[in-house]
Amino acid sequence: MEIKKLEGIVLSETNYSESSKILNVLTKELGIIGIISRGCRKIKSQLRSVSCKMTWGLFNIYYKENGLSTLISVDVLDNLNNTKKDIIKISYASFLLELTEQVYKQNNDSLIFSLFTSSLKKIDSGFDPIVITNIIELKYLDYLGIGLQLDGCSNCGNRDDIVTISVKYGGYICKDCLKDLPLVSSKAIKLIRMLYYVDIDKITKLDLHYDTIKEIDSFLDEYYDEYSGLYLKSKQFLKKINTINC
Ligand SMILES: [Zn+2]
Q1: Does pTM top 0.85 for this prediction?
Q2: How far is the CA of 156 from the centre of ligand 1 (A)?
Q3: Residue ranges of domains in the chain, CATH in brackets
Q4: Ligand 1: centre distance to CA 151 (Å)
Q5: Over its length of 246 residues, how does the chain's per-residue pLDDT go in tens digits?
Q6: Dihedral of the alpha carbons of 4, 7, 9, 12, in degrees to the nearest 10
Q7: How many CB atoms lie within 10 A of CB 70?
Q8: Element (H, E) at 216
Q9: How far is the CA of 171 from the centre of ligand 1 (A)?
Q10: What is the 161 CA–ligand 1 centroid distance (Å)?
């Protein structure tokens, strides 16, 4: 068996036999692979602290192409300590783990890994987890094949007089095509496009009005429900904590 060192992040874990776990790891180089961490549930195991969800590091493994690889050690790249001690941050990060796994299964584009890790870094360094999550949800639409039309009216192509964004039409709508579609604020219309195109790594400040964020978040929820075909348990939990927060 060949030894490999791969950058990756643990998406999920399952107990295996009496003291081991199987880790589902999204790697930068090879996509999602299964790694067995032998004996990691023993108190004294050196693999114990790194064999869990959200561990992000360089995984030293005995690599097996068809089947489970075996974990030797992990050099942790980022502990995400701020995220792990904050219920709101960790809830959003968990949602992103689950979403990323689903999106990656439909489209194994290598850029997904860097989008995902950039978003975790931003959440950990204190940026609003809702906005960071919305940015990722917007960017993932293209990988799911359900991208939004944000360069003109999604019904007639008109580039001017955009008055709302529509789930039904999948993008902007101009005043001539509005009919009885629900309106969103002009701030939300502009912001959603900005978030769609922004380079996450370059964000230094997010100073957004709560109502505008809420509008975009609700739009994305509805859009994902309508077109993505994904059902994510962690999303239901996020909805619950959001209700408590309001
Ligand atoms: Zn139009």
Answers
A1: yes
A2: 4
A3: 2-79 (2.40.50.140), 82-146+195-245 (no CATH), 147-183 (no CATH)
A4: 12
A5: 799 999 999 999 999 999 999 999 999 999 999 999 999 999 999 999 999 999 999 999 999 998 999 999 999 999 999 999 999 999 999 999 999 999 999 998 989 999 999 999 999 999 999 999 999 999 999 999 999 999 999 999 999 999 999 999 999 999 999 999 999 999 999 999 999 999 999 999 888 889 999 999 999 999 999 999 888 887 777 777 766 554
A6: -20
A7: 17
A8: helix 210-227
A9: 10
A10: 8
